[in-house]
């Protein structure tokens, strides 16, 4: 059994004239990341690894979750390939995960996340919101063989307010 949790980065700040990859979280982003991360503890597998996009807004979101989940921040794996908006690229990355890990938490971007969960989950989601959490489960022991799985949990920040 493989468990995949996809988390879209929290709300980012568009005010500063920065390159897209350098955009930080805004105040709502920080609040929503803390809110969701503090409310998912019972929805997580016992052990997992965390991968994050190198984009500042995604990596900052991953750090907030790691802190609140007592996950060692130095164990977060940052992947430049996760700075993608294409679900086919996201699929390749997920399928590259070592089979020695049964559970992966991945921080990334839309439209890749929404399209991925609609392709691989069994519940249609119009849009995974910023700081949105989607948990998928696959009946296989091999990441490279994942196909249609079960959508186990969907959490949006607005659900917790």
Automatic annotation (TrEMBL):
It holds the Pfam family His_Phos_1. SUPFAM superfamilies: Phosphoglycerate mutase-like (SSF53254). Gene3D superfamilies: Phosphoglycerate mutase-like. It comes from the Bacteria. This is Histidine phosphatase family protein.
């Amino acid at each position: 059994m493989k468990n995949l949790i996809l988390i879209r980065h929290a709300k980012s700040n568009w005010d500063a004239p920065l390159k897209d990859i350098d955009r930080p979280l805004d105040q709502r982003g920080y609040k929503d990341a803390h809110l969701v991360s503090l409310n998912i503890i019972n929805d997580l597998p016992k052990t997992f690894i965390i991968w994050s996009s190198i984009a500042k807004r995604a990596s900052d979101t991953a750090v907030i979750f790691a802190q609140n989940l007592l996950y060692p921040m130095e164990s977060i794996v940052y992947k430049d390939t996760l700075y993608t908006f294409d679900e086919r690229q996201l699929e390749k990355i997920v399928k590259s995960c070592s089979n020695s890990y049964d559970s992966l938490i991945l921080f990334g971007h839309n439209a890749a996340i929404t399209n991925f969960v609609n392709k691989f989950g069994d519940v249609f989601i119009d849009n995974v919101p910023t700081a949105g959490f989607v948990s998928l489960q696959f009946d296989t022991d091999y990441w490279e063989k994942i196909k249609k799985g079960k959508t186990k949990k969907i959490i949006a920040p607005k659900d917790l307010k």
